[in-house]
Design brief:
The protein is mostly helical and 227 residues long. The chain has helices at 3-8, 10-31, 47-57, 66-89, 91-101, 110-133, 135-140, 143-161, 181-197, 205-223. 18% of the residues are buried.
Length: 227
């Protein structure tokens, strides 16, 4: 079995199983948490609205921290959007998803995804530099933060390594170049490492962030507390 066959076969199967089962377990752990007995009457009843409001309000930093936190917020949005474009709008990745699920959609031009990749790489490097140089962030950071950064960056960098020629817009009459098997295997393995780590590290916030914010908003609204 070649490295590429391993990456496309057993490694992909195991990583997807860990990703989906682990993520479902994390979501279930949040949703099944028992509610504490509330010995007072609810202050407000519009808990659904409060939960949705909490999701929206947490999308931007508090006004008191806008001056010092806006740069980080903008950078975070930039590289998150960049990563989303890479994953869901790059033609080879859409083809990969289609082979797994049967679902497909129109891809953005390759040039757009290359620009998104640049935003993702620069944004992640800036985030790491900030973490290393800011006294507070450095004090609060642990292995999870740095390893999560690494497994996020690796698929992007190895994916860029697969681009072995100058950008030429694809046309129906031109067959796509055959990627280097070893580089493709390394790219797939880096993706599979990220999938395996996803449920156990801070990458899980992609699945948990809106659930946790909604639940917090519901609880605060019921107690009549300001968000």
């Amino acid at each position: 079995m070649s490295l590429l066959e391993f990456a496309r076969g057993p490694a992909l199967t195991v990583s997807l199983l860990v990703f989906f089962i682990g993520t479902a377990w994390r979501l279930w752990a949040v949703l099944r948490r028992p509610r504490k007995t509330d010995h007072s009457a609810p202050r407000r009843s519009d808990t659904v609205t409060g939960g949705l409001r909490a999701i929206w309000q947490r999308m931007l930093p508090r006004s008191a921290y806008e001056r010092i936190g806006m740069t980080g917020t903008i950078n975070a949005y930039a590289y998150h959007i960049g990563i989303a474009v890479i994953v869901f709008a790059f033609a080879p990745h859409i083809g990969f998803i289609e082979r797994l699920t049967g679902l497909s959609w129109a891809a953005l031009p390759d040039g757009v995804t290359y620009v998104a990749t640049a935003f993702a790489i620069v944004g992640l490097v800036f985030a790491l530099a900030t973490r290393l140089t800011d006294d507070v962030q450095r004090l609060l950071s642990n292995f999870d933060d740095y390893f999560t950064w690494l497994v996020t960056m690796l698929p992007i960098v190895t994916g860029m390594a697969l681009i072995e020629q100058s950008y030429v817009p694809a046309t129906p009459m031109v067959a796509p170049a055959t990627p280097n098997p070893t580089l493709l295997a390394v790219h797939l393995l880096s993706l599979e490492l990220m999938l395996i780590w996803f449920p156990f590290g801070k990458l899980a916030h992609a699945a948990l962030v809106f659930v946790s914010r909604y639940r917090t908003g519901v609880e605060f609204t019921r107690k009549g507390a300001a968000l």
